[in-house]
Amino acid sequence: MTKAVCPGSFDPVTNGHLDVIERAARMFDEVTVAVLRNPSKSSRFTLEERKDMIARSVAHLPNVRVDVFDGLLVKYAQQIGAQVVVRGLRAISDFDIEFQMAATNRKLNSEIETVFMMTDTRYAFLSSSLVRELAAFGGDITKMVPEPVLKYFSR
Ligand code: ADP
Predict the structure, then answer these.
(1) Bridge partners of residue 65, in order along the sequence
(2) pTM for the whole thing?
């Protein structure tokens, strides 16, 4: 049984994230989407809101659950019995930091493997920050986020 964890800020979850989660759900027996609790980084949505919107967006995926974590990712992965960390890659600009993080995590725990999924080209330029900015200026984000996320913007 292979368990994977998809960690991130998900502020908010986008169709790019969801695509990676859906693909991971086909590859692994169980997938945990883990929202990082990071008190030093301010966020547009609360931890609870981010968790809720992901849970609603992955309701069609029976082997996916949502959780919150803080501290070291590899420690958390070990705690929940996950052997794999899944990260999405959009452009070369993502590579450097992801390479650093994967190398660091490997040093901390070589039993946990980081797996990268190339973004679907439809989502190559999609990020949570882009969605937040567009929404702030009244732009149309309906094609960028899962449907359940929309109502969190109108609160
Ligand atoms: P973090 O702050 O950890 O980067 P994010 O919520 O921004 O958290 O991203 C979580 C993961 O999803 C990261 O691996 C990121 O590269 C990936 N990701 C973000 N947007 C996309 C996208 N449009 N397509 C594919 N992967 C994405």
Answers:
(1) 32
(2) 0.96
